[in-house]
Fold each of these.
Amino acid sequence: MKLTLRVWRQQNADAPGTMATYPVDGISEDMSFLEMLDTLNEELTLKGEEPVAFDHDCREGICGACSLVINGDAHGPERTTTCQLHMRSFDDGDTIDVEPWRAAAFPVVKDLVVDRSAFDRIIQSGGYISAPTGAAPEAHSTPVPKPDADFAFEHAECIGCGACVAACPNGSAMLFTSAKINHLNVLPQGAPERETRVLDMVAQMDEEGFGGCTLTGECATACPKGIPLPSIAAMNKEWLRATRKVSR
Ligand code: FES
């Protein structure tokens, strides 16, 4: 495949950015999108130019490190992570725009890399689980109703990539935050800190400068792990419940 890439280049957080155009040739449709960018970077390096900076780690759709807006869509045209997007989703001769996540709370570090440490601080604000750990307990020692276990697993799938924020016109992190709260709050092991967890994480989310939710639903559409939109309603319910139980 022969493609034209229009890639966001930005030297650092304070420098102005611009789209740079690069032709790439010899791209296999079986390559992942990141392997295609590797090919571009090898060519740039051989020419003595600076390679394009982009985030990646596992390249297996697990870690949440990859984060590109491709032709205006977070993670591109398929409902998957950028690392699991393959070039067969594009046509020979295509022009492809590649940009970083764009949100006030995710400042650009360089080129396509953004600072997502706001997510880390939201998780940290939730505190720890005080349930005793150690040797694995007998599986049935703490009964968990099947619907609750399914609910917890569904929300625990969030990999924290930030596509929800990038897709949201408000730059809201409510889908991410709700996934992190819901997967713990529904389980008996998460019950001791149930109220403080939701109050602190929502407060931190607001402090980080993420926008509010207006239920456009773009977040759930872009989420590569299928975290559902009602997750936000469940978080709001938890938050209301906690405000009645905890006086601060
Ligand atoms: S690099 Fe780990 S999810 Fe894409």
Amino acid sequence: MASSKQLTGVSRTLLIPLRARAQEHVRAFPLFRDTQAYHWFQSLSWDPKLEDWYDWRYQICISVRTKLLDDIANQHIATHPDSLVVELGAGLSSRYHRLGKGKTQWIELDLPEVIDIRLELDTPTDEHWFLAASVLDRAWMEKIPAIAPENVLFIAEGLFYYFEESEVKQLVQQLRSSFAGATLALDVGGIVFKQLNASKANQLGAPMKWFVEDEKDVAALGLSVKRVFPLLDCYLERWGLLPWMGWWWFVFWRSLLRNFCLILETELDPVQ
Ligand SMILES: C[S@@+](CC[C@H](N)C(=O)[O-])C[C@H]1O[C@@H](n2cnc3c(N)ncnc32)[C@H](O)[C@@H]1O
């Protein structure tokens, strides 16, 4: 049986989105079904230290984030017949099983201790394989199949928060120099996100370091921002709040929390 005990620091945080997806799977009206996440979560032990961080609000936020990135991935696969999806810091993402199987090539990239756990739960195939590497060590880029960059979708879900700004800049620069024209879908957190999460993440030994004011900070990295989805503005029905919210509160809520968490679809600009 796979064990989550070998997970420490940032790697341990993968249990949070895995649990959120497993719980979404068994809801009456879920944003998505995810049999794989449900079974994988059952077979791993939950880390009680994460309990302080994880609650029902987190579960909804992660489910909405998952759904928005699923929408982007579905559209990319449908419009690029020879597509490749690369999940950076994939954790135990089961997106390939939800929407990629038989339709696209797919690579899961994460640190070696995470790939070891995935190998106990998941089986690599010709179209779905795993890369054990730090995303910050550009050697992994040599292992990506040589296909036209516009067919490649990189997904960085719940990842960039854990890097220094200088690391984010360097990684994006390296991606741009090797894959200009590819799509990068990612989530970024704003100041309110930082206030709610940074100290909890610190206590767990997984410090969050990179936050943004809005999507302009992302564009400044050399990324053309194609679409912006404020997380708290999407799939509102999942919160079940609308019936009792006055319009004034609704407007206040939206303007204050627009940049709480942004899901972005971007294109990697060429390096000049
Ligand atoms: C919050 S989890 C998100 C996992 C997954 N994307 C999801 O949404 O379920 C963060 C992930 O980033 C991975 N990670 C952190 N630093 C990394 C690095 N330098 N290279 C590759 N993966 C990294 C961790 O191991 C962990 O799996």
